[in-house]
Structure to design on (217 residues):
């Protein structure tokens, strides 16, 4: 699908959905690669492509959506200009997060703020490259993709309400992809994605290559 955004630019969008009883890294990688290839084939600038993968538990499906900008006129730039560090600092302040915690994770900016109550998990705010909010949750930020560390974090954020166990959402940010994991073995899927997924946008020098966020959606 292509929609015009003016100034000789258009947004290209591709979507894929697959039925799955539980998410795993292979399903996520395949869907993400398919939509990424589709928008690139439609002419989107590789540096403008962003992929988001979410589970739709009520439908029992996993959905991947890729967007990218394509120039339709000579001399037009491929989409909005990405924000820089100064703009990111101003935006995370507006969202109530601490500037000192700001870190760039490939295509994303991540910042935290202390929890509002005693022993409450920190608040985590994630902006995409354009400065739009992607995640705003109470949770933990991990740069360790080892499964035992992820399992421990998932256990910390798991809540028991009567007979019902409520597990947290696990997000993986890597390259130009953000994936929300809400079923199956969350720790294993997150570890696989963080350690092995191929992405079209490599990290810039001194960037973290990935981050895992564990919290409530």
């Amino acid at each position: 699908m292509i929609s015009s955004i003016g100034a000789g630019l258009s947004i290209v969008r591709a979507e894929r959905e697959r039925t799955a009883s539980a998410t795993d890294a292979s399903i996520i990688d395949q869907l993400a690669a398919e939509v990424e290839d589709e928008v690139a084939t439609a002419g989107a600038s590789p540096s403008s492509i962003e992929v988001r993968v979410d589970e739709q538990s009520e439908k029992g499906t996993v959905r991947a959506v890729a967007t990218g900008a394509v120039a339709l006129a000579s001399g037009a730039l491929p989409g909005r200009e990405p924000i820089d560090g100064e703009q990111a600092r101003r935006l995370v302040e507006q969202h109530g997060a601490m500037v000192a915690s700001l870190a760039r994770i490939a295509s994303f900016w991540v910042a935290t703020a202390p929890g509002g109550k005693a022993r409450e998990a920190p608040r985590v705010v994630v902006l995409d490259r354009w400065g739009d909010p992607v995640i705003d949750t109470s949770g933990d930020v991990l740069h360790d993709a080892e499964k035992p560390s992820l399992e421990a974090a998932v256990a910390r954020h798991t809540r028991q309400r009567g007979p019902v166990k409520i597990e947290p959402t696990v997000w993986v940010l890597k390259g130009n992809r953000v994936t929300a994991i809400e079923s199956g073995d969350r720790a294993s899927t997150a570890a696989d994605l963080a350690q092995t997924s191929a992405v079209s946008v490599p990290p810039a020098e001194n960037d973290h290559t990935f981050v895992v966020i564990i919290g409530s959606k």
